[in-house]
Write a structure and sequence with these properties.
The complex is a heterodimer of chains A (356) and B (286). Chain A is an alpha+beta fold and 356 residues long. Chain A is built from eight helices and 20 strands. In chain A, helix 2 crosses helix 3, helix 2 runs parallel beside helix 4 (136-149) and helix 3 (107-120) packs across helix 4 (136-149). The model of chain A has no long low-confidence stretch (mean pLDDT 91). Chain B has one domain (55-280): Orthogonal Bundle (MetI-like fold). Chain A binds chain B through residues 50-52, 71-73, 77-79, 81, 83, 85-90, 98-99, 102-103, 130-132, 146, and chain B through 176, 178-179, 181-188, 192, 196-197, 200-201, 203, 283-286. The structure holds adenosine-5'-triphosphate and magnesium ion (MG).
């Protein structure tokens, strides 16, 4: 366990800069998830923490010690790779004990420690098997076991679940979470799956194109996204965004639809804004705005409806059983407390109330 | 059942051609080994004579040294070169191509060139050693009984290690990069990476290549025959050359065939033992 500080870290490949100054503070024992679209630099950042990639500028410190110049083995970290990277010619036991063996730990200690970890991960029966004789989920557990055996200061995960099927992913997700509760090891976890991020993280770091867009707890990001990117990225289905501007204290959509917005918006008179509303914050209301149903997707517990509103295709999620058919008209209103406004120019969130 | 026999019918023509090409020479050698030059059946007389020849045990031991010496260093240098060529450094592509040169040069050309380079009076090697005073007087590399076999082995190593290097390099390049990274995170030094990650991953390649090298070394003629013809004083006489000379210098085709048959038997046994002990590891991961 150790705090981890990332201070204005940059990465360039030749003239191409792919990380443009990243700052993240991670406290002792925290579970931090790096999330962002493909190619935004998550893996690069993680590999820099691991020492597999040089740090072009800035500072990384683990446990108060600057590690920029240290080799991976001197950083006291362990990493779980997306491909698991198990040694194919070693048994599960040898895979898990490899780091201790390299550290010249006494044979008996290695055996005890491996057995210990294998027990917590339910791998005892597989210790003599080779990786190719294991299922995907078992391999994943071995990869985690290999990291846990060393009892490192920091765990690094790079999309460890992306090779598993949906059901197993959910199961492993909670296993990783449970392990973290037990071990309390500082963890940095990379994923591009925002559901994984929401469910696992103490703190989420949303990245985009080599920059940090927002850092916060899952619900903070959900309730108060700092900008349009985070608003669109966190939450599934994504937040609906409608372009327009503020006229007479109302939101006027580009097609002329006029919607009521919270009073503080009046000070934005004339400004181009985007109105954001999450799918579950739309309600069917006879007094509402006219919309047209495009498609209906019942999932059982709720119904996803794609609609045309104010010239935009928007998604609504309704928990009540409703009978809707494509092409039919519908009347919608927006829950006023859950309306977000974003500055069209800068993309930044416009605060509408002190706590919102 | 019906289907299977139909299958045999289809491959029958190919089997017959192959059978002729492979079985006929073998069978004919067998026939030769029990007849004299006039074609009369002589029983095991040829075997008796060739085993009684003074050159035969000499050639046997020479062959053993030749094969062992060549194989060990070909594999050793080949693997080391492969590991080196697998590292990232400037000009790697050029070094890789240059390494291949000995393998590409035709054996007879290489042999002639080396013969000149090793010439006692005019060879560049003696010149380079005597000029700066490393040795007092020229060494008769090819005439001295103590140096000639090691020199032949050295040339063979030079000729074949690039082949090993390229094959092992191909194996090394198929190792996923994240295995190395995992090893680095687990705390492996460069040599530990070589020992615990690289070598186990190319083990099967090395085993297969070694088998090829053994077969090639056992059947070798070109370099030695072109440079020394087995001399001086039979110091480089290996069995294939003895067979060749018995047949074409001595015109004793029957005895040459008898020696071939025995050599063939020994070679088969060696290859068989090798495959049984080294090449079959049921636990080998894949
Ligand atoms: N060796 C390299 N040379 C040049 N550019 C690179 C190199 N490695 C990565 N990049 C670039 O850096 C950027 C970030 O890559 P990175 O692998 O960190 O993305 P990522 O966020 O992990 O994406 P994904 O979710 O697809 O894994 C990408 O635009 C990529 O093209
Ligand atoms: Mg990645």
């Amino acid at each position: 366990m150790a705090p981890l500080t990332i201070n204005d870290v940059r990465k360039s490949y030749g003239a191409l800069e792919v990380l443009h100054g990243v700052n993240i503070d991670i406290t002792d024992g925290e579970f931090v998830v790096l999330v962002g679209p493909s190619g935004c630099g998550k893996s690069t950042l993680l590999r820099m923490l691991a020492g597999l990639e040089d740090i072009s500028a800035g500072e990384v410190s683990i446990g108060g010690r600057v590690v920029n110049a240290l080799q991976p083995k001197e950083r006291d970290i362990a990493m779980v790779f997306q491909s698991y990277a198990l040694y194919p010619h070693m048994t599960v036991k040898q895979n898990m004990g490899f780091s201790l063996k390299l550290a010249r730990a006494p044979k008996q200690d290695v055996r005890d420690r491996v057995l210990d970890v294998a027990k917590t991960l339910n791998l005892e029966d597989y210790l003599q098997r080779y990786p190719r004789q294991l299922s995907g989920g078992q391999r994943q557990r071995v990869a985690m076991g290999r990291a846990m055996v060393r009892n490192p200061e920091v765990f690094l995960f790079d999309e460890p679940l992306s090779n598993l099927d949906a059901k197993l992913r959910v199961k492993m997700r909670s296993e990783i979470k449970q392990n973290h509760h037990r071990l309390k090891t500082t963890t940095v976890y990379v994923t591009h799956d925002q559901v994984e991020a929401m469910t696992m993280a103490d703190k989420i770091v949303v990245m985009n194109a080599g920059r940090v867009e927002q850092v916060g707890s899952p619900l903070e990001l959900y309730d108060r996204p700092a900008n349009i990117f985070v608003a669109g990225f966190i939450g599934s289905p994504a937040m609906n965004l409608i372009a327009g501007r503020i006229v007479d204290g109302h939101f006027l959509g580009s097609d002329g639809t006029c919607m009521a917005v919270p009073a503080p918006a009046a000070r934005l008179e004339g400004q181009e804004v985007k109105l954001g509303i999450r799918p579950e914050h739309l309600v069917i209301d006879p007094q509402g705005h006219p919309a047209e149903v495009l498609t209906v997707e019942p999932t059982g517990s709720e119904t996803l409806v794609l609609m045309q509103l104010a010239g935009h295709e928007i998604v609504g999620v309704f928990r009540e059983r409703i009978t809707l058919a494509p092409g039919k008209p519908l009347s919608l209103s927006l829950m006023p407390d859950h309306i977000h406004l974003f500055d069209t120019q800068t993309g930044l969130r416009i605060p509408l109330s002190p706590e919102n | 059942m019906q289907k299977q026999s139909t299958g045999y019918l289809f491959i029958l023509p190919a089997l017959m051609v192959l059978g002729m090409l492979i079985a006929y020479p073998v069978a004919y050698t067998g026939l030769l080994s029990v007849t004299d030059n006039a074609g009369n059946f002589v029983g095991l007389e040829n075997f008796r004579r060739v085993l009684a020849a003074r050159a035969t045990p000499i050639a046997f031991w020479n062959t053993l040294w030749w094969v062992l010496g060549s194989i060990i260093f070909q594999v050793l240098f080949g693997v080391m070169a492969a590991i080196l060529l697998n590292q990232n450094f400037r000009g790697r592509a050029i070094v890789r191509s240059v390494t291949l040169v000995p393998w590409v040069v035709p054996g007879i050309v290489a042999a002639t060139t080396w013969a000149w380079m090793l010439h006692t009076e005019f060879g560049i090697i003696n010149y380079m050693l005597t000029a700066p005073g490393l040795i007092d007087k020229p060494i008769g590399w090819l005439t001295n009984g103590n140096t000639v076999m090691p020199v032949m082995i050295a040339i063979n190593i030079w000729k074949m290690f690039p082949f090993v290097a390229i094959m092992v390099l191909a194996g090394l390049q198929s190792i996923p990069n994240d295995l190395y990274e995992a090893a680095r995170i687990d705390g492996a030094s460069f040599w530990e990476e070589v020992w615990y990650v690289m070598l186990p991953q190319v083990r099967s390649v090395i085993v297969a290549i070694t088998l090829l090298l053994v077969i090639w070394a056992l059947n070798h003629i070109t370099i030695i025959y072109a440079i020394t013809r087995g001399g001086p004083a039979n110091k480089t006489l290996i069995t294939p050359i003895q067979i060749f000379r018995t047949a074409f210098d001595g015109m004793q085709f029957g005895q040459a065939a008898a020696l071939s048959v025995m050599f063939f038997g020994v070679a088969i046994v060696i290859v068989f033992i090798y495959i049984r002990t080294l090449a079959s590891n049921p636990e080998e991961a894949r």
